[in-house]
Amino acid sequence: MASLSDVPFDLLVVKLVAILEIAQRPQGTTTPAAKQELRHAVAEFRDMLNRAKEVANGLPGGEMLIEDQDEVINMLEDLRNKKRAQLAQFSERIVQGSSAATQSLVQEMVQEIDSNASTPAA
After folding, report:
1. Cα–Cα distance between 106 and 93 in angstroms, integer?
2. pTM value?
């Protein structure tokens, strides 16, 4: 299966313009050479268009209706928002928990300093 990089989508327009230029020449496509040139240009355009269709049909999610895709996007955005809220709550708990632990550690250090300060030197 072709990938997006295999199909130069911008060349589709170039190929279509080439077909139109051949078809709109003053002499038209009455000569065998002009008819052959037009057939060749149309065949190139058709081949490139078929490759582009294959790539487009192979894209993930392409089998879903737009409404279904929107529903999945909304569901994923809701899930993301819930996860962000949970992460914010979790980090808040850690900050609060570390504050309590820090306060306890500071009090222990103050008590130790007080204890050391009041103990006579030997």
Report:
1. 20
2. 0.47
